[in-house]
What does this fold into?
Amino acid sequence: MDRENEDQCAYTHDLTDSDYLSDLDGDEWRCPHWSHGDHDLCLFHLAPSDRDVDPETVVTRLRNLVTGEADALRPTERLRFIGATFRGLDFEHVVLDGPDTRPVDLRDAKFAGPVVFSHADIEHPIRGSGATFEAAVQFVDCESRFGLTFNEATFEQLLVLDDAALGSLDCRGADFQQLCRCRRITVSGEVNFQGSHLEGVTFEEATIEGDLYFSEGTYRRRARFDGADVGGVVSLSRATFRNGLWAVEVTIGDGLIANDTQFGGAVHFHEATVSEGSRIHATRFESVADFRSATFDSLSITPATFDSEVRFDGARFAELNLDSVAALAGISLAECAVTDTASLADVTFPEMLDCRGADFQTLVIEDPGHDADHGMIDLGGSTIKSGRFGQSLGGVVYDLERATLGSVVLEEGPTPPPLRWYRFLRTDFEGFDFSSHKLAFAESGWQLHSSNDPRGVWTGTTPSAVDLEVTYLKAKTGASNTGDSEAASHFYRKEMAYRRRKYLSQVRGDPRLERRLKAGILTLFNLFMGATTGHGERARRVVSSSMIVIAGFAIVYWQALQPPVATGDGALDYLALSAQIFLTFVLGTDVETSSLLLTGTAAVEGFIGAFFIALFVFALTRSIKR
It folds into this structure.
């Protein structure tokens, strides 16, 4: 046995004050190593100034104990160095592999100089809980399949684990007064910094197969996890990130949890990929929150406060739930996609909730803008297959320009007309139920567009005649596809009215004469069809127009026929004659005249009569079909 003398080291360690020593029995632990020379203490517990050997001898002695080349008074405790004092440790390019896999126990040890395990192969767990490291600690490119434990340790200088391969990393309650750098680290188990205090931390491009805990800690400088791949859950609950968090292109396999978390600086999850359910609860973001182009299976934020801008542009979600969220500087969901349900309840924003170009399977908005006196939800160019658009006490306007609406329910605004709170322009209706909003549409005169919204968002903006024609064309098509013939009829007439305006604008402004003439003819035809048939939607208007034509020609005959028709009935004779010509296309048989003009007049009336009969059949057929 390799020993210095027959006496046991006199060092004892109090076990009553530290939870990380609870695996040891009793209230006091005594060092199992041999005392050194004439001293009562072993080589590891002597003060460095009392040692008569150089620091390398101490390191060699420790390594021999690990490898089994040396032994202790109690062999089962040969790797316990609790409360030891070292100038430093240099195990660079060393293989630490002994006859067993007992932990190298450095709990409550003190290291005055650098600790270097770079490029080492460590086949024992390293326990450094409660230890104090006054100089830099390096585990660069080392392998430790059993992992490292530094619970409640103090690192006064840099801790570097770049390119290390560990079984686990446990730093709960540790105090890092400088940066903790873990770039490209690979951990097959769990990484736990719960309750730790760090000047700064970086896990850029790290691979962690287990969970990652940064809960209940304080992080003074920016925390960075860019490009990291975490197989388990990432917990940030009750932590304070004073200078923000960067997790660009991070991959998380089992969800992100942030309950009662404070972010003092910018938070970036740009292009992150997060599987399973993620929850952010009672959390405050004091600077920009960036979730652009991120992918979440499910994300629930309820409640939360964003003092600066929050952006989900281009993000992808299976489910999204924003409840009692205050976005004090604006929120953007532009071009995002939600394949299941997006629920936005009591979301407060200053001016606009930007959802332009988004794609929602189901979008439910309740109490938007809270009780704010202004605000707009911009859904321009978005696709909403189903859902509900709610209103708040103060009201909010919805811009649906070029959007695609499916089975969506529109809640009526707080002031009439109820649909004045919704702006439709070139909007596609694919499954929208107009019949459920029939009274609201009727109250607004079946007018979809608005240039005088309650919040003045687009007051003074006048859509072009072409835009309005297309708007009502799309509405007519949508209503027809759902079988709502009444709505389709109203929208068709609006479409024709704005088509007429389009022609008139061409008459006034087109520089080419032939186009102006063509537009003028189309304008007159549009006017005629609208006045006489309601553009094919009003069969009764054809009858009324026919009666006017008959009466007009009756007056012509009364003035032109010589001798007059004299059957004793006066004006009724001329009305009967005009009606006979209108319906039969020939001059009445009781009338004898050689006037070519009168004969021609009768022929014109007959032709007009035939035309009106055809219009009546057309309008009647359309009305029956409607």
User: Anything to note?
Assistant: The radius of gyration is 43 Å. The CA atoms of residues 15 and 23 lie 10 Å apart. The chain has eight helices and 52 strands.
